[in-house]
Design a protein that fits this description.
There is one protein chain. The chain is an alpha+beta fold. The chain folds into two domains: 93 residues, Sandwich (Immunoglobulin-like); 319 residues, Glycosyltransferase (Alpha/alpha barrel), CATH 1.50.10. The chain contains 14 helices and 15 strands. The longest helix has 24 residues. The structure holds ligand 9MR. Ligand 9MR binds next to loops. The site of ligand 9MR has 11 residues, from loops.
């Protein structure tokens, strides 16, 4: 068959909107109708195909079908036929079931457990992906650029991605996103009820990273930037990496310190009723970090490294906004706290809002939405709360406009490195705005984004490992390629389509020259097939808010 069907390979929730696309090949046939066929061969639903138009980034002409009106659980296939009833395209079997997105939520949350560094993952929990403790990182030397004697204990935390680095900047945006999910799942805040065990697992997993964060704070309040191997590791296990080379600690910078402060203030909110002493420790650490950043407002990231990513960001306004907004919520009203007065914070926040307009989503580089979201979720100042809510509704509207104009229903202007993370982040913004401004268009567009991530995309790939038949088998992930297990660790989102193709010198086989075909399931493709915690985190947060 000359036609290609694009649909969610995991499946659809019974009450969800259910759309799919068909891309025409060179055939002159025209898709006229579709049928939904059960496993016993019975046609349970049929509908007309409509024209969607030409996709600007693949050149495909697309038709769309919609079976949202069908909501009976079961296993089905889509069959697209022409006017004469001749089949043109057939999907694989997929499911309609309530539990699917909840399963994906648990799967991707668990991927953070598999990213744990420095500890044993025992078989009773990690199953066939069990591994011994390695990269203890409890006696690290400082990078020579720091000109500092002695050693440092930076044990624990998550590996960032497919490499063995641990970065505060990217850890910060990831943990901040997961804290948001945890905050909204607290009884009475979010609109979706998840099992208590889910929130408990989330809080335990996030705490693992937060304990590492606390170890990354220097005695003067500043926070180190990263822990990394001296050179990039090959595709070896953590234990083998320890035999091959040393690791080091680097930093400090204004971005890492403020990322830390924003996250720690947020952690106070989320853990205060669960682990009160830990929550107080987090708040104290946040205040010390913020004070350091006020005295050191433009300390750049470490430039002189090998063996790790840069996360280079020299704009600090957005991180200041994030931290101040989080601290503002946590400080007792009207009172000065550890040298920080509420009035000073308020004045600075007014300027932050002017300088840092709300964005369509969060990223490691642009963190202002944490500020806007914190203000939208606070009740100390109703004027500021209303302003923040309106700002986020405004960007939600823009996301919906983008989705409606896009052939695949997503909101990107361009496919960048980690496009799946950008998509999930835009979906998350929609679901947040939906909390205070419920709108079925927001939910529909957010679902469309999830459909894209799980298979309704130009490369017919479910971008999450272990989720569907088309999931990546060869992610750019050192553990997956060194653990002797054929199946990759499940629940990892790969970066996805990336029109910049920075890995061409490794000779990946992209399926076509158009930007929308810039993805390949090959280990060498670090630009499209790596996973990273900052792409997994918004997927967890988005799924946790889906109704
Ligand atoms: O996600 C990062 C992307 O935005 C940058 O363009 C890219 C190049 O600097 O780096 C990505 O982050 C990588 C990090 O530098 C090192 N660990 C793996 C990360 C994901 O590929």
């Amino acid at each position: 068959m000359d036609f290609s069907l694009h649909y969610n390979h995991v499946g659809y929730a019974p009450a969800a909107s259910k759309e799919f696309l068909v891309a025409g090949g060179s055939s002159v046939a025209v898709p006229a109708c579709f049928q939904l066929v059960s496993v016993s061969g019975e046609v349970v639903f049929s509908g007309a195909m409509g024209e969607r138009g030409t996709c600007s980034y693949t050149g495909e002409f697309l038709w769309q079908g919609d079976f949202s009106a069908f909501s009976i659980p079961g296993h089905f296939r889509i069959v697209v036929v022409d006017d004469a009833g001749t089949p043109l395209a057939r999907s694989r079997e997929f499911e309609i079931a309530e539990r699917l997105m909840g399963e994906q939520l648990a799967l991707t949350l668990e991927s953070f457990y598999f990213q744990r560094s420095g500890v044993e993952l025992p078989a009773d929990r990690a199953r066939k992906w069990a591994r011994p403790a390695a990269h203890l990182d409890n006696c690290l030397e400082f990078h020579p650029s720091m000109n500092r004697a002695g050693t440092w204990n930076a044990h624990g935390g998550w590996y960032d991605a497919g490499d063995y680095g641990k970065y505060i900047v990217n850890g910060g945006v990831s943990v901040g996103t997961l804290l948001l999910a945890a905050e909204l799942l607290e009884v009475g805040r979010g609109r979706v009820v998840r099992p208590v065990s889910f929130r408990t697992n989330l809080l335990e997993e996030v705490r693992f990273e937060l304990e590492f964060f606390l170890r990354m704070q220097d005695t003067d309040g500043g926070v180190f930037f990263k822990v990394s191997p001296i050179r990039w590791d090959g595709f070896v296990s953590p234990a083998q990496s320890d035999l091959n080379q040393k690791r080091q600690i680097l930093g400090k910078s204004t971005t890492s310190t403020l990322n830390f402060a924003g996250v720690m203030a947020h952690a106070h909110r989320v853990y205060r009723n669960v682990y009160p002493a830990f929550a107080e420790q987090c708040l104290g650490a946040a205040i010390r970090a913020y004070s350091w950043a006020i005295k050191n407002p433009d300390v750049t990231y470490p430039h002189n490294t090998e063996g790790s990513g840069g996360y280079g960001d020299e704009r600090y306004d957005d991180e200041f906004f994030w931290t101040r907004a989080m601290l503002f919520r946590e400080l007792p009203q009207g009172a000065a706290h550890a040298g920080l007065s509420e009035t000073e914070l308020l004045q600075a926040l007014q300027q932050d809002m002017e300088r840092c307009p709300a964005q369509m989503g969060l990223s490691w580089r642009d963190t202002e939405n944490f500020g806007w979201i914190a203000l939208a979720l606070q009740d100390n100042d109703s004027i500021m709360q209303a302003k923040a809510r309106a700002a986020l509704v405004c960007v939600a509207e823009s996301i919906v406009e983008h989705c409606n104009a896009d052939a695949y229903g997503i909101s990107l202007d361009k496919f960048v490195w980690g496009s799946n993370g950008v998509i999930a982040n835009h979906g998350l913004t929609l679901m947040l705005a939906n909390l205070w401004n419920p709108d079925t268009r927001y939910v529909k567009s957010a679902r469309g984004m999830l459909d894209f991530i799980y298979g309704k995309n130009p490369v017919n790939t479910c971008f999450v490992t272990g989720a569907a038949w088309s999931s990546p088998k060869f992610p750019h992930h050192r553990i997956c390629h060194s653990d002797g297990v054929e199946d990759p660790i499940p629940g990892l989102v790969v970066g996805g389509i990336n029109a910049d193709r920075q890995d061409m010198h490794r000779f990946p086989h992209y399926p076509g020259p158009q930007p929308g075909f810039s993805y390949t399931d090959e280990r060498c493709s670090f630009a499209s097939n790596e996973t990273a915690i900052n792409w997994n985190a918004p997927l967890v947060a988005l799924l946790s808010l889906m109704e």
